[in-house]
Amino acid sequence: MATDEESPLVGHHDQTVNHWRDIHILSWAFLLIFLAYGAAQNLQSTLNTDGDIGTISLGILYTSFTVSSLFASTVVRKLGSKNSLLLGTTGYWLYIAANLKPSWYTMVPASLYLGFAAAILWVGEGTYLTSTARSQANDHKLHEGTVIGHFNGEFWGIFAGHQLVGNLLTLALLKDGAEGSTSGTTLLFTVFLGSMTLGTVLMAFLKKRDGEETEGEIDSSYSFYTALVSLWKQVITPLCDLRLLLIVPLIAFSGLQQAFVWAEFTKYYVQPSLGESGVGGAMAVYGLFDAICSLAAGRFTSGLTSITLIVSGGAVLQGGILIWLLNYSEPTGILSVVYPLLIAAIWGIGDGVLMTQLNALLAMLFKHNMEGTFAQLKLWQSASIAVVFFLSPYISLQAMLFLMLAALVLSLAGFLYLVLKVEKVFSSDLA
Predict the structure, then answer these.
(1) pLDDT in tens, 194-206
(2) Which segments of 141-270 does DSSP mark as H helices, in order?
(3) Hey, is 314 helix, strand or coil?
(4) Buried b (16+ CB within 10 A) or exposed e, 29-62
(5) What is the pTM of this model?
(6) Angle CA(425)–CA(428)–CA(431) in degrees, nearest 5?
(7) Exposure of 6 by Cβ count < 10 A (0-12 exposed, 13-18 middle, 19+ buried)?
(8) Taking CA 57 as the corner, what is the angle to CA 56 and CA 59, rounded to the nearest 5 degrees?
(9) What is the CA radius of gyration of the chain?
(10) What is the pLDDT of residues 90-113, one digit of tens each?
């Protein structure tokens, strides 16, 4: 009754501010958390070299991420998206803390738990953002696809800035070749812990979305059988949908291209030309252009047609870079600086396109099973990232480049087939 009496006091303008407020909070909280994690991930192969613990821990992490994505949607449904976001941040905090005393006894358990927490966090993020966008569209009679595009553009634009901020922070604290300095790394990871803590506190100010007030209360009849049925409906059943099957290759490529930058591009193209200290600078450029492109792509996203044009443009750019890398010879002079930075910038544009458009596309196509759909997104992305980390020591760079190019062609073909053959289904779903 109190709600009914108070509702006239809440105007449409306040609701608009509140919906955007939550996207602002969500975006900046992720920036604070991932500027620490992203930079720490880039440093694993440089700092934690004893027994390749850094690279192996990342492989373990993304394998755990993949497995956890199978049931992450069930956890998010039970906890609610806001509580899931808060739970997910704990894994990132623990992983950074483990880097203060890196060993098999700290890094492996932290990586395993982070894989679980990351799956919960990212399914919660996709669900929360989409729910918030729908509230904005419904409350103010706006075009749903446009609002989803704008919200995704802001989130991924600010989020992509974590590579810029985190890597610049790393350069500042580990300057003068102090990568091996215990005091330097201790200071760096202590600052990272502070940033993550601030991001988690900021996340607590998010509003619960409609219908989440009672979530988290586990029904007494909930059983292992119920959990299996829920898992089947939310994760396995979506794979019977032709639309999702056609998008899966593009999702997998989005993970491959990210891992390629982290594991291969910095090692074979940036470090030989710019040195170890230049890796942070190249990744900062990558993050800057990723952020700019994410914001721009989000503003231009309004429906399937715009998504098709933006994704196709990004695919052409990344395809061109892959062909260039296949015929790449180490440059000399000023070009030894320009080429790696140029490639990083273009690759950042491609990543910004993929991340904003995939999230917007899935939100538009699968509005009735957001948790299960975003679980699929993280499942295939994390699996493909793990593949790169585990394959990297055993195949040549040329083979990796051909694998990437083949994956790009396959994923783009599947996506364009979806556009040409399933557009009527898409349109009826949005109606």
Answers:
(1) 999 999 999 999 9
(2) 144-173, 182-203, 224-231, 242-260
(3) helix
(4) bbbbbbbbbbbbbbbbbbbbeeeebbbbbbbbbb
(5) 0.76
(6) 155
(7) exposed
(8) 65
(9) 21
(10) 999 999 999 888 888 899 999 999
